[in-house]
């Protein structure tokens, strides 16, 4: 057993010194940070002021379009044909044409532009027109708009978790769903990513025949365990570096470009009623109850993120990633020892990958009923527990379930390691011979 640390050190250092590891360690955080920084920067670059010319034949909509920080309006008292002829020299972004019969036929409105209008401008115009047309129709029907507005109700049910002895804790189902799915998918990706590294490493050593020299001084089981643990440490190192470097890059970007990470004044979140001082008068008029509801929902989202127990989530993630990887890496090592090339791995990989794929497929059922029997059994069975338990954790899992899952996952890892070692010790020296399930069974039952 004293040789295992030597093998771990050799596997770890040989991989972290590779150019591919260094490149991916640097490139990974850059790509992840770019996914957060670039959209904000591009959005700021594209926030130029767009001028919309209004040609309203009815005259009803004069001064009914409030200017925003990025959209300005000017009203033309000319024929639409003349406006279109002068468009190229006007510098306007678009022309909104409202014919005289627009009130009775809302579909007759046309937006002329020399380019495809963006969705923000189109949505703003549609919402403003919809509000004004509804006001006109309500007035003509003798219905008081204030009465109708007061009837509209947006409903949101708060969820409170009872923790016993009168203790209450606010819960957020949507955030728990997203967090659980994200953690489960990350576990799935990392197990495959680093498990295949074990597979390829074993095949590479076997086909180069260097393994025959190594096993003369090291037992096959020690070699397998050293390789598995060494690559696991490489994975954890890379994962930690990704987190640290990504956080560092984003922090530096925020310091260097503070304006790119700030919202426009017109985009500020309103929490409370429409009389808030952070809004202009025109914006307050445009803000419907549905808008208030969405903004309050955004406030709750921010509040829910701050309520996440990140310490628990990170601790659980590392445990299930580590032991889930160790369990599957042992099986990947066994497959690698039984074949001579990656092309021959398909028949043996299917039984190993099915539990992982099945766990991802069943995640929707687990989210819908995280306390049900399906969720319980899949979260304690070692082959599926790394993914399913991570999906359940944000919803709250009884301590007994976690302890049982821990114990069975560790036992599952030990059993799979013993099982894989039976195949590994013989298969690692079998070169040039096609393996089959019957042959594997002989290796497993063989008594030295």
Write the topology of this structure.
Elements: H1 3-16, H2 19-45, E1 50-56, E2 71-75, H3 80-85, H4 87-90, E3 94-98, E4 110-112, H5 119-140, H6 145-151, E5 159-162, E6 168-171, H7 173-207, H8 211-214, H9 220-256, H10 281-286, H11 289-306, H12 310-338, H13 346-368, H14 373-380, H15 385-392, H16 399-427, H17 437-445
Parallel strand pairs: 1-2, 1-3
Antiparallel strand pairs: 3-4, 5-6
What does this structure look like?
The two termini are 19 Å apart. Strand 5 (159-162) and strand 6 form a beta hairpin. Helices cover 64% and strands 6% of the residues. The chain has two domains: 50-142, Periplasmic binding protein-like II (D-Maltodextrin-Binding Protein, domain 2, 3-Layer(aba) Sandwich); 176-254 and 265-445, no CATH class. The chain is elongated, with a radius of gyration of 31 Å. It is built from 17 helices and six strands. The chain is an alpha/beta fold and 448 residues long.
Features:
448 residues, alpha/beta, two-stranded antiparallel sheet, 17 helices
- Tell me, briefly, the overall form: elongated
* Strand proportion: 5-15%
Distance between the termini: 19 Å
User: Which ranges are low-confidence, i.e. pLDDT below 50, for 5 or more consecutive residues?
Assistant: 263-290
Helix count, DSSP H or I runs of 4 or more residues: 17
The Rg value, from CA coordinates, equals: 31 Å
Structural class estimated from helices and strands:
alpha/beta
The major sheet is characterized as:
4 strands, mixed
Helix content, binned percent: 55-70%
Question: Average pLDDT value?
Answer: 78
Counted up, domains total 2
Order of helices and strands: HHEEHHEEHHEEHHHHHHHHHHH
């Amino acid at each position: 057993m004293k040789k295992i640390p030597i093998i771990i050190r050799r596997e770890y250092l040989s991989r972290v010194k590779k150019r591919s590891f260094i490149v991916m360690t640097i490139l990974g955080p850059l790509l992840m940070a770019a996914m957060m920084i670039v959209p904000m920067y591009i959005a700021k670059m594209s926030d130029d002021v767009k001028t919309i010319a209004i040609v309203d034949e009815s005259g009803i909509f004069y001064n009914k379009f409030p200017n925003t920080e990025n959209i300005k309006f000017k009203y033309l008292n000319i024929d639409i044909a003349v406006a279109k002829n002068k468009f190229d020299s006007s510098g306007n972004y678009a022309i909104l044409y409202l014919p005289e019969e627009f009130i009775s036929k809302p579909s007759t409105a046309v937006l002329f532009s020399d380019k495809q209008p963006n969705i923000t401008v189109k949505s703003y115009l549609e919402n403003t027109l919809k509000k004004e047309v509804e006001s006109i129709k309500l007035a003509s029907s003798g219905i008081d708009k204030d009465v109708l507005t007061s009837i509209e109700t947006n409903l949101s049910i708060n969820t409170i978790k009872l923790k016993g002895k009168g203790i209450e804790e606010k819960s957020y189902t949507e955030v728990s769903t997203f967090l659980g799915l994200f953690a489960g998918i990350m576990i799935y990706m990392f197990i495959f990513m680093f498990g295949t590294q074990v597979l390829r490493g074993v095949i590479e050593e076997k086909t180069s025949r260097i393994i025959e020299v190594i096993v003369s001084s090291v037992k096959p089981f020690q070699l397998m365990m050293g390789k598995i643990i060494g690559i696991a440490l490489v994975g954890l190192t890379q994962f930690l570096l990704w987190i640290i470097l990504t956080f560092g890059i984003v922090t530096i970007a925020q310091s260097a470009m503070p304006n790119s990470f700030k919202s426009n004044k017109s985009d500020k979140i309103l929490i409370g009623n429409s009389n808030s001082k952070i809004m202009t008068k025109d914006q307050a008029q445009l803000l419907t109850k549905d808008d208030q509801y969405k903004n309050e929902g955004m406030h709750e989202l921010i509040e829910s993120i701050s309520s996440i127990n990140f310490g628990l989530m990170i601790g659980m993630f590392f445990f299930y990633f580590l032991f889930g990887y160790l369990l599957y890496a042992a099986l990947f090592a066994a497959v690698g020892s039984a074949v001579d090339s990656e092309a021959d791995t398909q028949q043996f990989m299917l039984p190993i990958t099915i539990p992982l794929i099945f766990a991802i497929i069943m995640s929707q059922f687990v989210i819908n009923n995280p306390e049900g029997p399906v969720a319980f059994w899949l979260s304690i069975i070692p082959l599926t527990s790394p993914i399913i338990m991570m999906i359940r954790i944000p919803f709250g899992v009884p301590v007994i379930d976690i302890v049982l899952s821990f114990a069975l996952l560790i036992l599952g890892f030990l059993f799979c390691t013993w099982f894989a070692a039976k195949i590994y010790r013989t298969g690692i020296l079998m070169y040039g011979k096609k393996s089959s399930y019957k042959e594997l069974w002989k290796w497993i039952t063989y008594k030295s």
